[in-house]
Structure formats: C-alpha cells, structure tokens
Amino acid sequence: MTTMPSAPMPATRTVNSGLAIAALVLGILSFCLPVLGLVAIVLGAMALIKAGASPETHGGKGLAIGGIVAAVLSMIIVPTLALVILLPSLGKARAAAREMATHMQLSAIGAALGTYAVNNKGWYPESVTGWQDRLSQHGLDADFLRSPRAPEGATDSYIYVPGLQSSGSPKRILAYENPAYVQEGKVAVLYLDGRVESMDVADLNRILESAGRAPKPPAAGSNTP
Q: Which residues, in sequence order, are CB contacts of 41 under 8 Å at separation 6+?
C-alpha cells in the first residue's frame, strides 16, 4: 500500500501567517518602542485583507487581530504613562525657573535701589508711593518689576519696605515678593546688603512683625503694601 504524499501548504497561507505573526510580535514590542505599533497595524491589516480575499488564506487571522490590538493599546498607554511620569518633573522645573527669574529681578531691584540711595544721601525711597517709577528713572527696566509668578497685568509683584538707610543692618529686609502670588509657600526676599533668598511666608511675617512692619500684602493692581 503506497502512501500519498501530503499536499504542501499553499504559499499564500504561509505568507499570510508570517504577516500575522510579525504583526503580533511588533505589536508586543511597541510597548517598548511605540513607533513599531504603526508597522504592526499595517502588517495586521494586510494579513486580514489577505484572509478575507480567499478562504484558503484564513490562517493567522487571530494573530493579526492580536497584533493590531496590542499596537493600538501601546499607542494609548505608553504616551499616557509618559505624561503621568513627566508632568510632575516638568512642573518642578517650571517652578524652579520662575523662582530663579524672581531672584534675578530682586537682585536688579536691589542694585537700582542702591543707586538711588547713593544719589539720595544714603536714603532709600521714603515712601512706597511711586517707588517703582523712581527705580525706572534710575535705569531699571519695567519688566524687572513684574514677577513671573504674578498674574498677567499685576503691578504689585514686589513689596518695598520704606524708611531704610544704606548704612542700616544688612539683615534688614528691603523688598520681598508678594506672598499673594506664591503657591509654593516660599517667597523671594531682598536684604539690605543685596542678598536674595527664598523664605517661608510664616518666617517673613515673623521678621516683619518683629521689626514693627506687619505685612499687609496689597490687592492685585495696587502699588502699596
């Protein structure tokens, strides 16, 4: 009794199964490299088209669907996870940049106040009224008087403490950031010696109160503390 040789698998079915397997593999790998998801979707779609064109090429249909589903999920999940992980870091970086800009502005304000005092027998502006305009007359750009942490249009980013002399204690506070516009709990403070540092709002209030200058942050749009 002779045995009839088995018929070879049609080439079209082999090709279709290869496309489906490739789609599934690339769909899984797309969780590590999302760009592969596009290739997986294309290969999976080709496999499904071939399977629908001829009953003889239905092999691998499930694998093709699995590859497409995996690719779509990776393209949704991976970017979402990346945003969840990166957003806090981006927020911290943005807050640090704003804090640095605020310190630079207060340093410029301190330099302008020092120039004013030199030309005014050692006295800083005696009143909070118009102190910003006086600094502008001494070369300070108006942009340095608007903190990046204050809302658009605010003119009271920084609060000036009047009545000090350049010969006073270097630890005296000359100006500080308006606490009403700070959400991180720390404000930038300018000392009489030109130093600028971040300080807890509670500590700032305590220092001002001990010096008889209880803080009264102005409402947005005003120029008086």
A: 23, 27, 67, 68, 71, 72
